[in-house]
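Incident log, entry 3
Record: ArnT-like N-terminal domain-containing protein (526 residues)
Problem: checksum mismatch between cached and fresh output.
Input:
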Amino acid sequence: MLQQWNNALLQLRNNKITWLFIIAAVLLFTGIGSTPMYILDEARNAQAAREMMDRHDWIVPTFNGELRAHKPPLHYYFMQLAYHVFGMNAFAARFFSALFGWLTIWITWYFTRRFVSYGTAIWAVAALLVSTHFLFEFRMSVPDPYLIFFITAGILCFYAYAQERKLKWLICSAVAAALATLAKGPVALALPGAVLVWWALSQKKYDLLFSWKMILYFAVIAIVALPWYLLVHQATKGEFTRIFFFEHNINRFGEPMEGHGGLFIMVPLFVLLGLLPVSVFIGELVKKTKSFHTNPFIRMSMYVTVVFIVFFSLSGTKLPNYPMPCYPFVAILLGYFINKVITGQNQVKQYPLWILLTLNVLLLAAGWIGLGLETATQAFRGWALLFIIPVATAAGSCWYFKKEGLKKAMHVIIAGYSVFNLLFLAIGYPAVYKHNPVTKTVPLLHANEQVYSYKIYNPAFNFYLNKSIQVLEDPAAVSRVLSAHPQAIIISREGLLPELETVSYKLLAKERDLFETATTVLISGK
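Fresh output:
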């Protein structure tokens, strides 16, 4: 028995991928409940799921009692399931996001090992594992984790069907595509569809596109995804359809919304920065792309990368999370390149690691200056010193690259960034964000009384109070409320107070929004 136990431990110690999956679970789940709800999208999504659950409504998403037509409902369903299991808290709201992060890493590993090589799969997983942006996004209560996983699953399962012609892969791909559509909308069908058509034509697999099984493919998508869209259209008399498809899809593509515009180059930069540290090898990878065309799986990964980056570069609205569905495929390309270098099939120069060192020094300086400039976080400026870890990691990787080559340098990067991401995401980031205006002022609000807002407020107040907040749109409405209920509390912004100069009120609290120019205020009657 002891010998069997020792053999099991020895096998575990030598099994690199098992350790990578264990590390992934630790990095994705540790501390996801300790970061307070404060980011606007997180709070709105978490509260919308709760409102649907409280109403026992599976069709119409709402926030603050009003229709929320920003996204389809898939992430709300998973959040509700977590609320039933773990209770109404931040951990539950983020639980399935983290789980789908782990599954995204697993499915990337599974298909890359199956269709390319063990070495490529290992390094692809490593590239995702050390990406702070990848981990950060999958620790949030937003729809992107679900979208990324199901787009990845849909494309990879379709590839498996194209190679093996097993109907199970086609059905799995269709179901994944349908669920991706229920996570984000038509873009989840259009972009993967463009990739797969392009890839099939490049491989001269015309029979894939002109087979009766494609009718089955689209039928499965329709059966899974279409009923909810029809039901919500009927339940809201077309309002959800109009707002979602025209405002949050067509208009977002056509013009910048909420100030999120920018140049074409921004989206490639989002991907490069988002997949740091391993993305520093992108320049060297691009030089070798001709050799990538010989492997159909790698070629497909290239097409995914190109389609997503070009599409969102053309979009009027640009956000760092938009091109994230291509992250697993960029990681596959990076894993393929790194594995070729380590196995002696390619060579790489050292300059990418020097670039990484320079970037990390700049991040350390930016973190130190940023926390120092922000009044609310000056006392926590020391957390910026966490960025010394990536600096030391990059310096160590440069040294090991020169002495022992890329493989040892990558081991240093994986170890160093795993430590950094754990400390930063699970400890440092929550410690700083606990000092946000919502956390500081929620104790002043009365859960059993109506809370008001003048025009603007952080939606995290809804999540912590678990109630609707009545929004007042003009000073006269504020005056009427405070006259009738002097003890009523109204949330607003300091910049809006000059509009209330004719209103008799007293200032209860004033807290600067973290890393924003606005300041949250609470007022009541005198």
